[in-house]
Amino acid sequence: MDVRYPNAALPSKSAGTFYAAYFGVLGVVMPFLGPFLTGRGIGAVGIGLITAAFSLPKITYAPVLGWLVDRGRWRPGLLSAHVALSLAAALMMVWVRGPLMLGLAVLMLGLGYGAVLPVVETAVLERGRRGYGALRLWGSLGFVLVAGGGGRLLEAIGMEHFPSVMAVLLALLILTCRPFEEAGRPPAGHTRGRLPRKVWLLLLLLMMHQVSHGPLYAFFSIHLRTHGMSDEVVGVMWSVGVLVELVAFLLGSRLESALGLRRLLTLALAATPIRWLLLALPPTIAVVAIAQAFHALTFALAHLAAIQLVQRAVPRGAARRAQALYAGLLFGLGIVAGSALSGPIYAAGGGRAAFLAAAGLSIIVLVCWLALSRRLVTSDTDTPRPPSATAGSQKNQKITLPT
């Protein structure tokens, strides 16, 4: 089958810049959406539900968009238009009050923002899977810079300016989407395909792993501020997690070669309950920093292994739909369920109860993975392999790192 990309020579700088801008937005949303909502008078249960609304479109809308793109439904400016919707939602948050209107604004924000990444990720993975970790680390770097600097900035100008800071970052993200308005389109000769049953089961286990992160996404910042830590320290603690994430992505190819993807994912899942048990302890800077260092395992290596296991197990004609489902079920439904469920637990027992519940769930996920992993992961997806020759020439697919 002759498969030709509309833009085979995708520059690595374009991918790196996009990742930095995209996760830079997340670097202000994740640490500071909760404190911003607290300042607007929203209670713990409301914060959990509104935080969940940010990820809800990844479940319902992004997979549909991925399915349509896989079937050739592509329009110029598709990605920029979605980010523009998020920008409008951020500006809306400057003026709106009350849980209903804020929830609607956050839902719109998540709809535009969440639809972009699966299309770009598939374009990057199709052109050179072996370089994914080295490119993805630019996203970690963008998150670190924004989370660390954003905490200091918002402490100086006031948390009420959170939507304005987010709007500036979204405007920058629109610019980085331009190279992918063509490169994200499926190649000529693209064929349709179905998702194997084992992929659905793998996605379910990975989603439950993400559910255990609910207390972290919704209440980590609030938990630390409740125990007297400043916004600047909160930002630094988020940055610690992403700094080790950056290192993990940088070393990802070596770890992949040494362990294989299945063992890499097993290591990540085994480390997850340890992280939540540490966060259930009385929070001190030392304990929280150690727990955040586990982010290299519980997120970075888990994501690095999981995204490749899923992509390698599906036919090329289902690649964008599979990637959208991966993002939707893990970072959509997983976060929605985790954030929503953690709200009542946090309201009843505080951070200790929420993180103990997360530890219990992650232990169940680990046990299920150990029982099923050999059935879910075949030998050809357990170890690194070069990109398929059917995706075009090696020369055209290669993504070289920026110098």
Explained architecture:
The chain has 403 residues and is mainly α. It has a single domain (12-377), classed as Growth Hormone, Chain: A (Up-down Bundle). The chain is built from 19 helices and no strands. Helix 2 (44-60) runs parallel beside helix 5 (99-114), helix 3 crosses helix 17 and helix 12 (231-250) crosses helix 16 (295-312).
Which terms summarize this structure?
19 helices; single chain; disordered C terminus; Growth Hormone, Chain: A; disordered N terminus; 403 residues; mainly alpha; 78% helix
Summarize the structure.
By secondary structure, this protein is mostly helical. Helix 2 runs parallel beside helix 5, helix 6 packs across helix 17 and helix 12 packs parallel to helix 15.
Topology:
Layout: H1 12-39, H2 44-60, H3 62-70, H4 78-95, H5 99-114, H6 116-127, H7 132-157, H8 162-176, H9 180-183, H10 197-211, H11 214-226, H12 231-250, H13 252-259, H14 261-280, H15 285-293, H16 295-312, H17 319-376, H18 379-382, H19 394-397
